[in-house]
Each structure stands twice: as structure tokens, then as C-alpha cells.
Specification:
- The chain is mainly alpha-helical and about 100 residues long.
- It has one domain.
- It has four helices and no strands.
- Helix 3 packs across helix 4.
- The mean pLDDT is about 95.
């Protein structure tokens, strides 16, 4: 497998992860408008459920294809894919934090 294809997969995985994060962030930021004001156990259960769901979605998004590749004896490519995906996510985080610092 060539490096260009691995980088493409890593970029797509990072974009999917950032899109999911944006959706969940928007949901959380507008939660009171969408669902009304809630307190107590039901809210805590909903937040923990969202956390578990988010961990599962991000786990599949970031580690799904590398695990399949690793099990199909593409160990080097799997590790490179994870590193590139994390690299794209780190670059995205740096850009987001730079914007936050500039707009503070």
C-alpha cells in the first residue's frame, strides 16, 4: 500500500472525527434550548451515555481501519495510519486553540 493512500485515509478519518466533535459540541452548547433545563439523575445518565457513545464512535473512527489492517498483516501501514490520523487531529487542535487565543 502506498503512502499517499494511507495519508488520504488518515485525513478522512480526522475529518470524520472533527465533524463528529463539532456535532456533539453543538448539541451540548444548545442542549438547554433543544431539551429544556434539566437537573438530576436523568441528565447525568444522558451525559454518561453520550460519553460512552462518543468513545465508541471515536474508537471505531480512529482505530477501526488500522485494526483491520493490522489483523490482515499490514502492521506497518496500520501504525503509520494511526500516527498520521493523530497528526492531523493535533494540527486541527493547534489551529482551533490558535483561533481561540486570537479571539480572546
Amino acid at each position: 500500500m502506498n503512502k499517499k493512500r494511507i495519508i488520504k485515509y488518515a485525513f478522512i478519518q480526522a475529518v470524520i472525527a472533527v465533524a463528529y466533535i463539532a456535532i456533539v459540541s453543538g448539541l451540548m452548547a444548545n442542549g438547554e434550548k433543544l431539551f429544556g433545563k434539566h437537573e438530576g439523575a436523568l441528565l447525568m445518565m444522558a451525559m454518561l451515555l453520550l460519553l460512552v457513545l462518543s468513545v465508541a464512535v471515536m474508537g471505531v473512527t480512529i482505530f477501526g481501519k488500522p485494526i483491520i489492517w493490522y489483523l490482515n498483516d499490514l502492521k506497518k501501514e496500520a501504525i503509520i495510519l494511526i500516527l498520521y490520523t493523530l497528526g492531523f487531529l493535533i494540527i486541527t487542535a493547534i489551529i482551533f486553540f490558535a483561533f481561540l487565543a486570537l479571539w480572546a
